[in-house]
Specification:
The chain is an alpha/beta fold and about 450 residues long. It contains eleven helices and 17 strands. A hairpin with a 6-residue loop joins strand 8 and strand 9. InterPro entries: P-loop_NTPase, T_Tr_GTP-bd_dom, TIF_IF2, TIF_IF2_dom3_sf.
Length: about 450
């Protein structure tokens, strides 16, 4: 095998977009199941995605070290490790193992077996007991991945010269540099090559400035460092630095443009593939502006707002990277529009004694004149502009906290408008005619 590239997708329910993208990219998958909890909703969703794309997978039955009295032996096979456990641990392990096997059969219609007893890899799902913490079963898992790849993916793992590359995510690194997190499946990708990717606003044509690969950190607390490469050869994960990719869309294919005559056709092709996916981001009108440090996080926040307490929160704009002064000024347009609308309504009421174009007290759009920064920093000039223009910037690493902040603003604006309406009614009844008072 030329190599093994592992894509780790988040298990949180709000990152289903990344799981779907990971499923569509992979040739062989590992579904991680907590032995203490069995199949959860996110696990079932992942299995359905894999079956939909006809992707073979195995199950890592993880956290076996949490069994009371478990003794770890990571240098041994997991079969030997299980045999060395006490009778009480063996009984508890067998009970939880059989429970997971039963869930796979009853809920998903899948036949499954522990890998060292499986005689049919194509029809029976392999289950590997593992512990990510102690390392038990990890050697068995890696061996099985290589073994199954050589048996089941022989036609897919052959190297080809034509570049096949997919954008897994778009993110900001080192505080300000936007990169494409890409998977080079096949071929050679080089610096200075002319590339085409799909974007939120249309196709993006640019040139590769640099190709970065991650240097393995010494420990989990060390900062990630990157090595610069003149070229990379599939299969490999790479960060692509280029100009004008801030609005690139995750999920896009990346094409090399060698002949300008094929440029138009490739533009249409890359956007046609993406259109159903990015259409939800084509926003306008009044709504909150959302900012995140990666496309995956942006999608998660967007979907969370879209389904917030069965009352979707409108979104007017999205962006990747730190919150900038431009984001603040663009968001302030909502406030300007609300002020202009209020003035027009005042003139209308003064002239006609009633509103024709709409009741200004029923509009709560000013509550959405704010920026939600999910794990995204705020640039100093943006903070200054936000204070001057009265645009709140809510920064949090928790999705729920961001939603609650918007709901609190809506409640505050409603109360303010209600107070203004009550005062206007009192003034009308005090100074106006009974008919005017009744009409209010």
């Amino acid at each position: 095998m030329p190599g093994l590239l592992l894509i780790d997708t988040p298990g949180h329910k709000n990152f289903s977009n990344l799981r779907a993208r990971g499923a569509s990219y992979c040739d062989l998958a590992v579904v991680v199941v907590d032995i203490m909890h069995g199949l959860e909703s996110e696990t079932i969703e992942s299995i359905k995605l894999l079956r939909k794309h006809r992707i073979p997978f195995l199950v890592a039955l993880n956290k076996i070290d949490r069994l009371y009295g478990w003794e770890s032996h990571p240098s041994m096979t997991v079969k030997e490790t299980i045999e060395m456990q006490s009778e009480a641990v063996k009984i508890e392990y067998q009970k939880l193992f059989e429970s997971t096997i039963l869930q796979l059969q009853e809920q998903q219609g899948l036949n499954a077996s522990v890998f060292f007893e499986n005689r049919n890899n194509r029809t029976v799902v392999n289950v590997v007991p593992t512990s990510g913490l102690s390392g038990d079963g990890i050697v068995d898992l890696l061996y099985l991945l290589f073994s199954l790849s050589e048996k089941m993916l022989i036609n897919k793992i052959k190297y080809q010269d034509e570049v096949e590359c997919k954008v897994l995510d778009v993110r900001t690194i080192d505080g300000s540099r936007t990169v494409l997190d890409a998977i080079v499946v096949n071929g050679r990708l080089k610096e200075k090559q002319k590339i085409l990717v799909g974007g939120l606003d249309g196709p993006i044509i640019t040139h590769v400035r640099s190709l970065l690969t991650t240097i393995a950190p010494r420990d989990s607390r060390s900062k990630l460092n990157y090595a610069q490469n003149a070229e990379v050869k599939g299969t490999i994960s790479v960060k692509i630095c280029a100009n004008g990719i801030e609005r690139a869309a995750a999920g896009s294919r990346l094409y090399i443009i060698n002949d300008e005559r094929e440029e138009t056709a490739l533009k249409e092709k890359v956007m046609k593939d993406l259109d159903p996916f990015i259409s939800k981001f084509r926003r306008g009108g009044d709504g909150v502006h959302i900012q995140a440090m990666s496309f995956g996080s942006l999608e998660a926040l967007f979907d969370f707002l879209d389904g917030a307490n069965n009352h979707p929160i409108p979104v007017s704009g999205v962006g990747i990277g730190p919150v900038s002064k431009y984001n603040v000024k663009k968001t302030s347009i909502i406030l300007e529009r609300e002020k202009e609308n209020a003035k027009a309504c005042d003139k209308e009421y003064a002239k006609l004694g009633r509103w024709v174009s709409g009741n200004p007290f029923s509009s709560f759009n000013e509550a959405y004149a704010c920026i939600l920064a999910y794990e995204a920093p705020v640039l100093p000039d943006a903070e200054k502009a936000a204070k001057e223009l009265g645009i709140p910037i809510v920064r949090s690493d928790a999705l729920l906290q961001l939603v609650e902040s918007v709901n609190a603003r809506v409640t505050e604006v409603k109360q303010k408008k209600q107070t203004m309406a009550d005062q206007m009614l009192m003034d009308a009844c005090t100074h106006g005619t009974p008919e005017v008072c009744i009409s209010k």
